[in-house]
Amino acid sequence: LVEEALRIAVSRPPDLTIADIGCGTGAIAIALATNLPHAIVTAIDISPRALELARENMDRQSLTDRITLREGDLLEPLSGPVDLVTANLPYVMSSELPTLDPEVRMFEPPVALDGGDDGLDLVRRLVSSVVAYLKPAGVVLLEMDPRQIASASNFVAQALPDAVVRVVNDLTGRERVLVVET
Questions:
Q1: What is the chain's mean pLDDT, rounded?
Q2: This prediction's pTM
Q3: Rounded distance, CA 130 to CA 139, Å?
Q4: Partner residues linked to 166 by β-bridges
Q5: CA pair distance 180, 162, nearest whole angstrom
């Protein structure tokens, strides 16, 4: 997701505006702010604890002046439209939560993992409202389980019929990131 965002950023203005939705501990927002020094990055999460950890990680990287943290549900906390939305939202199917490795199951909060029956509940909610938060020619990058790419692509095609949708493979060659260009 980060590599694709950086590739897209090359063809955009230097003051690119980015919203990282479901930022968790801030890894994506930090990577983007580090590599795009003129970008304006907003990182949003519903969890106050995740935002505390994101702030600590931003402090370690001296990026507290470059990334704005906002608490809230998906895109709701944004104050205006952005050029790029990144999201690595919870995508584990509810039925698979008990089968996760104990290190994940016992230490990750369920809200950071549970994506609903098919793992796409939050992706559908985000896609359904994202156009109102994008600047013209905006792009959305969604990271998910490779098993969900086809279903998510179909949903995006229905919800955003004028968008161009493509898939980016991860380093192992598996379909991992859905790119939506509006």
A1: 96
A2: 0.95
A3: 10
A4: 179
A5: 10
